[in-house]
Amino acid sequence: MKSMHFEDLDIKKDILKALKELGFEVPTPIQVQAIPHLKMGKDIIGQAQTGTGKTAAFGIPMIERVNPKNKAVQILIMAPTRELSVQVADEIQKFSNHVIGVKTLAIYGGQPISTQIKALKRGVQIIVGTPGRILDHINRKTLKLGEVIGVVLDEADQMLDMGFQEDMEAILKETPTERQTAMFSATISREIERIAQKYMKQPEKIMVAQKAL
Ligand code: ADP
Ligand code: MG
């Protein structure tokens, strides 16, 4: 089979330019499979190990969904740790480097909440954070999710292992039901299945076995 290129995935020019600068030439298997589904607006469950390129798989289509003229939060990404939240936010920032008017912010425990509140007030469309701190902001009304159109649960099994299940569900309930939802997990347990059943609309299952990079 002829190898796929990012150009074949119908990705917007300003994102393609960033990918080129980052040295991304060929999309990984999870990217080839997930990007078209997400671009069509479908919910997906992606089963893939670390290092398979999941951030771009959900990051690229989610950036494309943002309306830059709207300064409200439109994309919400949950990740299990501060480190992963920062990593994902940094990478999404890089992918959207040439997309005018799109801002990404990482929010997590351990950083003063006042710093995050100031940044939120300036207007950000993509939030990446740990469930605990996201919920803190919701409770303080410093984060409003009424205009969210896309939610990503990254490393969902790890979030459950860390005891974030209640927080995750409380956050999901704050977002509009018409949202698109993508969940990524190295393993698909019964609990993951239950969450998918409850919060996702006929999710497409995508599985990637091997490490791609
Ligand atoms: P995962 O979330 O599945 O663990 P990441 O999205 O963090 O994986 O990607 C792992 C590494 O591979 C990162 O350094 C990322 O920049 C790089 N990467 C991802 N996709 C590609 C690609 N298509 N081409 C080159 N490098 C890539
Ligand atoms: Mg990842």
What is the topology?
Elements: H1 13-22, H2 29-39, E1 44-47, H3 54-65, E2 75-78, H4 82-95, E3 104-107, H5 113-121, E4 126-129, H6 131-139, E5 150-153, H7 156-161, H8 165-173, E6 180-185, H9 190-199, E7 204-207
Parallel strand pairs: 1-6, 1-7, 2-4, 2-5, 3-4, 5-6
Explain what you see.
The chain is an alpha/beta fold. Helices cover 42% and strands 14% of the residues. The protein has nine helices and seven strands; from the N terminus they run ααβαβαβαβαβααβαβ. Strand 3, helix 5 and strand 4 form a beta-alpha-beta unit. The chain starts with 12 loop residues before the first helix and ends in a 6-residue tail after the last strand. The mean pLDDT is 96. The structure holds adenosine-5'-diphosphate (ADP) and magnesium ion (MG). The site of adenosine-5'-diphosphate has 14 residues, from helix 3. Keywords: ATP-binding, Cytoplasm, Helicase, Hydrolase, Nucleotide-binding, Stress response.
Describe this protein with a few key phrases.
single chain; 213 residues; alpha/beta; 9 helices; globular; binds magnesium ion
Q: What is the chain-wise order of helices and strands?
A: HHEHEHEHEHEHHEHE
Mean pLDDT: 96
- Poorly predicted regions are none
Radius of gyration: 16 Å
Which small-molecule species are bound to the chains here?
adenosine-5'-diphosphate, magnesium ion
Q: What is the tally of helical segments?
A: 9
Strand content: 5-15%
Largest sheet report:
7 strands, parallel
Structural class assignment: alpha/beta
As laid out across the biggest beta sheet, the strand order is 3-4-2-5-6-1-7
